[in-house]
Amino acid sequence: MRQTALLGFAAVIVVVGELSASISTAKLPEQTKSLRFEVAAIRPSNPREVNSWSSIGPPGGLVRLVNMPLKQWVEMALSVRDYALKAPPWLDRSRFDLDARRPAGEPANQKAISEMMKALLIERFGLKWHEERRIVSGYDLVAGKKVLVKASGPAEPRASSSGSALIGGTDMPMSELVGALGDVLQRPVVDATHLSGGFDIRLTWRPFEAVKVADATQRGMKDLDNLPSIFTAVREQLGLQLRSAKVPSNIVVVDRINRQPTEN
Q1: What pLDDT, on a 0 to 100 scale, did the predictor assign at position 211?
Q2: Cα separation, 144 vs 148, whole angstroms
Q3: For 39-71, what is each residue's pLDDT tens digit?
Q4: pLDDT digits (tens, 9 = 90+) for 81-128
């Protein structure tokens, strides 16, 4: 199964402006009990390869990454969003392929894959990192005069979907909505609605970037030119508001990573 290489992982959030910082010492985490790939072969990507993609097979199966920037390897390993990672710029240009086999019986869930990727990067690339807590530029999500989202009934199945111009779901908590909005805005979004429970949400907007407009069109979305900006859509479709604010946020800082892996 092919899918785009941009794998989303909920984790920590962006750094843009810095007002204060509380910095932990860089460390090499304990890995003696972590999950590891049974075998893993790493090769430089073919420079003529255009697309990046990944494939994760059944338990005991293969994990393949093709033409994927090393920065995305780190994001997978540390469960961090792109805008939450402070790393050397060359990580975006350094691309590798991975053919690895997961241990038999291990599920193909995000947590297990992250642990195996983390162990791989520590052992083969010498990865070291630390986390920081900062006050940064972001957004508060607040309730408007009339909240248009509706609470899901108890019989509704839990589901969610997202794309270049869509956030949707049933029984979606505000914590999940602000995470999805943060991905779109590339800034941390903090829930200040004081709304609890789950909600049925469908939010559509016209993306900022032309490439995302093309992606949304390819996925079957129509009349994008008639859709509002995401800020207007949040207000009109959900009855909520995004306000610029200075918010507390965690980030991950890469202290060390080698440009080449140790031999297979």
Answers
A1: 59
A2: 9
A3: 999 999 999 988 888 888 776 688 999 999 999
A4: 888 899 999 999 999 999 999 888 776 678 889 999 999 999 999 999
**Can you tell me the distance from the alpha carbon of 51 to that of 119, in angstroms, rounded to the nearest whole number?**
26
Tokens for 40? 């893993």
* DSSP-assigned letters across all residues of 196-227: -SEEEEEEE---SSHHHHHHHHHTT---GGGS
Model pTM? 0.69
**What span, in angstroms and rounded, lies between the C-alpha atoms of 82 and 97?**
20
3-state secondary structure of 66: strand
Amino acid at 130: H
Integer distance in angstroms from the first to the last C-alpha of the chain? 25
| Residue that is written with structure tokens 């392929």 in the block | 97
Q: Mean pLDDT throughout 170-176?
A: 90
Q: Residue 48 is which amino acid? A: R
Distance separating alpha carbons of residues 114 and 76, to the nearest angstrom? 6
CA 223/CA 206 separation, integer angstroms: 9
Paired residues of 86 in beta bridges: 253
